[in-house]
Amino acid sequence: MILTVTLNTALDVTYGVPELVPHASHRVSDMSERPGGKGLNVARVLSALGHETAVTGFAGGSTGAVLRELLAGLPSRDANTKAENGATPAAAPITDALVTVAGNTRRTIAVVDRATGDTTQLNEPGPLVNADEWTALLGRYEELLTGADAVALCGSLPPGIHVGAYAELVRLARTAGVPVLLDTSGEPLRRGIAARPDLIKPNADELARLTGSREPLRATRDARRRGAHGVVASLGPDGMLAVTPDGVWQASPPAKVLGNPTGAGDSAVAGLLSGLVEGLSWPDRLRRAVALSTATVLSPTAGDFDRAAYEELLPRVGIEEHSTAA
Amino acid sequence: MILTVTLNTALDVTYGVPELVPHASHRVSDMSERPGGKGLNVARVLSALGHETAVTGFAGGSTGAVLRELLAGLPSRDANTKAENGATPAAAPITDALVTVAGNTRRTIAVVDRATGDTTQLNEPGPLVNADEWTALLGRYEELLTGADAVALCGSLPPGIHVGAYAELVRLARTAGVPVLLDTSGEPLRRGIAARPDLIKPNADELARLTGSREPLRATRDARRRGAHGVVASLGPDGMLAVTPDGVWQASPPAKVLGNPTGAGDSAVAGLLSGLVEGLSWPDRLRRAVALSTATVLSPTAGDFDRAAYEELLPRVGIEEHSTAA
C-alpha cells in the first residue's frame, strides 16, 4: 500500500461560465465537484496505475462529508469497466483514512471561462486544526506507516498546524523505514528537507525560493545539500531534472504540449512513487513521471490523465544522463 | 404569520479577496455563508421588524442541510440582545417550512474585491425539482396559507418547475383569501400577473421587459392592466412609484446614498408586506419600504439593513401623491 498525506484537503469545485467578466453577475453553465488536495490527486493516479493506496489528512464539516462521499465512489466505475476489458490495469482501491476535525474542509473554486479556457482560482483557507486533532493524525499516521511501502506528504498546511509538521512526519517515516517523498513549498518545505526525506519534487519557483538560484542544476544540488536524499525538479515543458545518490538525469517530454497544467505535478509524484515501489530504475521512474504529467496536461478534465496519451508518450520520453557527479 | 415562498433557495457565500484578477489564483481572505434566495431575505427583514414568518420552498442535499442549519440559528442572538435592551422590537421567529428535495440546493458566490468593493457574482443553477416534489410543495403551501396574514412569492424558478408555477400559487392564495405579493421576473412574472396578484414589485428593468416601456408611470399602469391589483415599481435611487386602486404615489429617499444594493429590493418587499399586515396607509407603507431599502444599501453587510439608519430615514422619506387617477 502507498500512503498519501494531505493535511489541507479540499473539495475542488469547477464552475464553467460562458465568459468571466469582473464585477458582473454570471450564471454557472456547468459545474463539477471532486475530492482534492495534492495527496488525494496523487492517490487517484496511483489507483489508476493499479496501486492500492490509503489517504490520510483532515476532513470535517459539511464540505468534508461531501469530500468523503465522493472519495468513497473512487475508483470510478469507468476505470473498472476499462479494466474488465483488459485494456488497462484494474484501478486499485483507495482507503479513506482521513481524521475527522471539527472545522469545515475548504473548497477551492476554479472558474473556467468557456470562451478562452482560462481559469480563475479562489481558494478558501483551511479549517483551524487544534492540538488534539493533530495528535490524532500522528497516531493514525504511525499506524498506517506499518503497512506502507512508501509515503507522500503533500501540499499546504491548514491553519493551526505548526510549520515543522512535515519535518515531524518525515522523521516518523524514516524511523519506520518507509521511503518518504515531500511535496510542499515555502517554510514547511525548508524545515521538512532538514529532516532528510528520501525525495522532494519542487518546481522551478519552489526551488528558487528555497535556494535563491534559478539555475536548475545548481539549485537542485543545493537542495540536496540541505538534506534531501534525492531531488526531482519539475521544469514544466522542459521536463524533469533528477539529482540522486545514483546519478543525475534529465528527462524531456517528446514534444511541447498545450493544455491545463493543473495536477501535472501530482501525477509526477504518483509516477515517481509507483516507480520506487515497483523497483524501477531512475530512468524508468522519470519516463513514467514525465509521461504521466504530460498526459495530465493533455487531459480535457483538469487533474486527470489521458491514458492513451500516457501509453503513447511513455517510450518516447527522452532521458539524458549527466556525466557530472550528483 | 407572514409566509414567504422561495422556490429557488440558495446558500449565499461571500468571498473577500484582496483584489480580483481574472485568470489568477486567489487566497480567500474572509468568507461568510448565509441562507439566501429572495424569500429568505424578506423573512429575515420581517423577523427583524417583529413579524413572525414561515418560509417555504425547496431545500436539498448537503448545501440544503447547511442552509437549514443556518436558518435554524435565525433570528440571531445579536437581534435578541438588542431587543432585551428595549431599543428595538424583538426579532420574531422564522419557521422552517421548506420541502426537502433530492437535488442539491444551489450556492451563489459573491466575490468581493476588498480593494474596490466591487462584487463578481457566480450563481449555480438550482436543483432539478420533480413532479412529486412540486406536489409536496403545493400541499405544504395550502396548509401554510390557512395561518397566513399575507404571502410573498419570490425569485426565480429552479429547473423542472413549470413556468406557470407562480400563477398557480397566486390563484391558491386568492382562493384562500390571503393577500399575495409576487416578486419575480420574465415569463414567470408575466404569467403570474395574469393570475391577478394583489401586488407586484418590479424594478425598472423588469417593468421594461414586461411592458416594453421605460417610462415608469406608463409601464406601471400597463402592468396593472395586465392583472396586478397594485404595482410598486422600485426605481433605484429615485425611490418607488406605487400605482394602486387607492391612488398613485411617488416615494423618494431623502438623499442619494452609496453602498451595496444587494437585498434592497427584498427589504422593500418586507416593508410593503409588513405595512399591509399592520394596516398602514399606502404612504406609510411606502415610507417604510423606501427607508428599509435605503438602510439596506447603507449596511456594511450585503442584504442586512442598518437599523439606526432605517429609524433616522423613516420620517424623512418624501411622499408625493399624483393627482392623476391610477
TrEMBL record, chains A, B:
It comes from the Bacteria. GO terms for cellular component: cytosol. Keywords: ATP-binding, Kinase, Nucleotide-binding, Transferase. GO terms for molecular function: ATP binding; phosphofructokinase activity. The keyword ATP-binding applies. GO terms for biological process: carbohydrate catabolic process; small molecule metabolic process. Residues 18-72, 100-303 form the Carbohydrate kinase PfkB domain. Belongs to the carbohydrate kinase PfkB family. NCBIfam families: 1-PFK. This is 1-phosphofructokinase.
